From TrEMBL:
It holds the Pfam family Methyltransf_11. Residues 47-137 form the Methyltransferase type domain. Coiled coil: none annotated. This is Methyltransferase type 11 domain-containing protein.
Amino acid sequence: MTLFDEHERSRWTGRAAAYQRSFAALCAYPAEALLDAAGVEGGHRMLDAGTGPGTVAALARARGAAVVAVDAEPSMVDTARLRVPDAEVHQAMLPHLPFTDGCFDAAVANFVINHVGDPAAAVAELCRVVRPGGRVAVTVWPHPQPPLQQLWGQIFDASGARRPAAMPRLDADKDFPRNPAGLSALLAGAGLSDVRCRTIAWTHHADPEDWWSGPANGIGALGLLMEHQPPSMITRIRHEYERLTAAYRSDDGLLALPTAALLASAAVC
């Protein structure tokens, strides 16, 4: 396990409920397209790696697929088991999966590759457990960042919040460009063929209090930044949050935040 992996585990410990309230709906948007890209249909045996609260697993079961789901975080495993009781859910993390070679027809990882310390090894492991001719499909957040992701950085900058001296990052030799060419190359480098990659763009609608609750409850890198601030700075961050999100508030009071994701899939040889 890399230092980045250890950091990720610490950020998600016990935070399944906080994630469901804040960012789960955002990450759920590409789920159907992810399953389509992996060719998941009734009768298939599918692996959902990094299942979180079981969003993708539930949709795959609705298609009639036999679903095995894994997540590194116990609170996510518990949540997924409750949400998808007829799926097989285990605690496990990439790139070390407790499955034999070629035992799945497809494998998906929805916004998981961006949370592992060795993305290439993670993709190779997904490839290992899928039979020849099956497909692997993944999503990641792109760079340059869409407006939704940029907004939090603008809020922190406007408040004058101080960043920690060193934010956990992937080792340079493990990272890859977060664009269609970079994600496609990551899959091709694992020996996959028929690589396809596209950008999915949408507007995410969220309650302002729910959207604030993610970082406020320690979710991800934003949560780490928030935890490093004194109470007086949290007040200033909240003020800038209200000011800068005003431009995205709809008549119904919800935030309407433009965003995008990269979706890539490929066939196992």
